[in-house]
């Protein structure tokens, strides 16, 4: 990959990382705002479950972004983790933290 593409990709991944961290921080703030005295404790439990699920998904996304940034630094960014082939640029544009090419990703479903 050309250096300018690496710099652009790094900026894109860093911006996405900052966005995800912001969402995680916001969830931490929102979590303390549950009304423990609310009459429907089932609703509070359900809301907490939704927040926990969202936070888990955001943490996974953050790990993927950190992995992509590490690969960028190591010069291995853009290669499929299963087959070793280059991941097409269009896929990396759509999903900068993609670990797999479309072919390998479709086989894992």
Explain what the structure shows.
There is one protein chain. This protein is an all-alpha fold and about 110 residues long. The protein folds into two domains: about 5-75; about 80-109, no CATH class. Helix content is about 70%, strand content about 0%. It is built from four helices and no strands. It has helices spanning about 5-30, 40-75, 90-95, 100-105. The radius of gyration is 18 Å and the shape is elongated. Residues about 30-35 have low confidence and may be disordered.
Topology readout:
Layout: H1 3-31, H2 41-74, H3 89-94, H4 102-107
Quick structural gist:
The chain has 109 residues and is mainly α. Helices cover 69% and strands 0% of the residues.
Count of alpha and pi helical runs: 4
Rg calculated over all Cα atoms: 18 Å
Cα end-to-end separation: 29 Å
Residue share in helices?
A: 55-70%
Look at the helices and sheets and give the structural class.
mainly alpha
Q: What portion of the residues fall into strands of 2 or more residues? A: under 5%
Number of domains: 2
Instruction: Label the overall shape.
Output: elongated
Q: Which spans have pLDDT < 50 for at least 5 consecutive residues?
A: 29-34
- Would you count the extended β strands for me? 0
Spell out the helices and strands N to C.
HHHH
Mean pLDDT: 85
Biggest sheet details: none
Task: Describe this protein with a few key phrases.
single chain; 109 residues; mainly alpha; 2 domains; 4 helices; 69% helix; 0% strand; elongated
